Amino acid sequence: MASVTFAPDDRYNAFITTLSEAETGPGRLSGIPVAVKDNISTRGIPTTCASRILAGYIPPYDAHVVTLLKREGAAIVGKTNMDEFGMGTTTENSAFGPTLNPADPTRVPGGSSGGSAAAVASGMVRMALGTDTGGSIRCPAAFCGIVGLKPTYGRVSRYGLIAYANSLEQIGPMARSVEDISLLMEVLTTHDSRDSTTISCPYRHTPDPSVRGLKIGVPEEFFGEGVDPRVAAVVWEAVTRLEQQGAEIVTCRMPSMSFALAAYYVTCTSEASSNLARFDGVRYGPQADTRRPWHESFQDQRREGFGAEVRRRIMLGTFALSSGYYGKYYAKAQAARQQVRNDFVRLFRTVDVIAGPTMPTVAFRLGEKTDPLSMYLSDILTVPANLAGVPAISVPCGTSEGLPVGLQVIGQWFRDEKVIDVAAAYEQGASL
Fold first, then answer.
1. pLDDT of residue 293
2. CA–CA distance, 85 with 89 (Å, rounded to integer)
């Protein structure tokens, strides 16, 4: 067993933990430095979810995806910064300070996988793992100018992922090229019986950069209110380039977009309220003061251990699930979620993939968005794919104001190969 020396110039605060020496072995990823988001369990390496409440926690086991990386010889060189427990769009909500965007250090890198994106974009690593609950891989990929894929829900095991919102989140690859995304997907899609949501669907595919005869749907809602016209123009130019390569562009409608964001936030906060209840100072978290009444100790532990955004989402989710409000909020959100899924089913009867902007704007300045509602609105274009569980990729497609813009391609369930093909076609066409 050999080792890889890792001494990054982490001026962007991309890492929470780094390993100066990382083991490597034979395999498809032999000798390649890979970073892992800090909500994915790594045996013997601290895993914090960027939260004070997990200070000192060292998992006794590897997540399934980490086992697969090691099996293929990857050198896992560190754990990347993130929004605490995956809750955010900027990687500013971290107990370890914000991550900076390598494209412009005065800007956010996106979130919640901002550390992974910054590590890749800056060249510190070639590949990284992120997680995507409502756009947390695609958002930082777009803001930092790299490629990021949210696989079909169930295609990659979530065993060892510290849960935020189980029905939405998915582990996925981040890299500087579509070819590397494809390589990581080959490694990550091994079935795992420990995660009952996974389906045995191995990825064995070489990207085909041809879109001739492909029908690409472009929903009008993806270019509607809130989308910066300059970003829209860059993405339309990218779509036109795909048309010039032989694709057929079909404008369409996706009415469920009007309530997708609300359905997402009710769902994810409700699941967060349930999942994070375990961090109570008894089961997980710093040891509670057992000499005091339990409810007082519990309150203090969570107030001191969780950041403001995590506390906000827990309270929102607890309210949505509470007696008398469950039917008004959570049940309605699930009905709305089904409408989003129905829209995708309908659209995929006539088109092969859907395309549009990944994010409605370019990366905003650090500290610019302090109002939670304006922050949540940034997720409007990415959350539909999570609600429906379909695969979606972000690939760099140009710049606006000198900052990266991402083209989002969304595909049918378990046809991740097709969205990777379209991204490869754009990437190759753009380089000509």
1. 74
2. 12
